[in-house]
Amino acid sequence: MGRSFDELVDEAAAAPVEGWDFSWLAGRATEERPSWGYQRLLGGRLAQATAALDIQTGGGEVVAGAGAEHFPRTMVVTEGWPPNAARATALLHPLGAVVVAAAEDAPLPFADGAFDLVTSRHPARVDWPEIARVLAPGGTYFAQHVGGGTNVEVSEFFLGPLEPGDDREHETEAAGARAAGLQVVQCRNERLRLEFFDVGAMVWFLRKVIWTVPDFCVERYRDRLRDLHERIERQGPFVSTMSRTLFELRKPAG
Q: What are 187's strand-pairing partners?
């Protein structure tokens, strides 16, 4: 006999969601990963840098996982959400990185040309002119972005049909980067599969990835969550589609 709807939902609603660690979903959801292996590639890029900046770092897990042995002499990260900034500080300060609290919608608090490498994994907001400004001439932006149409199946299950948007489509983002004066070296996009095996996994995911259903809370969507629970019981996992883009951009040296 499977666990009840209330048990699954209550457990997920009480579980912590700070940082950018998804291990709570082990055995409850599966995410297909991009073929390129961003964290491994990030370690190699950091090892070649003199001064690096990781923006919107979350809890710092991705940067830490790239390997502190690869950190350049100057290693800085930014994060705007206080619980994540505190988590990143605890994780990264002992490894020699500096954590700067900076809102996503504010200018980056650094001088022009301060970094020869700027990185980010899944930034919620991308400000191409600011990225270009803080990059040194000849510097590189290396990142993995969430692409357009990611988890639209989840969003529409709870919100109903949505108007398609293209602001996160990889070609649209690449055009924005070019408009800011950056050269596109790589722009690789893959569509990937995400499966949820129980309603608790969905509750926890929506509490953490808040832009999927921006007004999500358990009580507001309890009836829809019950529909999802019954659907998974009848049909098996709820399947959604993700988009991921690998960006490598260069600021001209001249």
A: 247
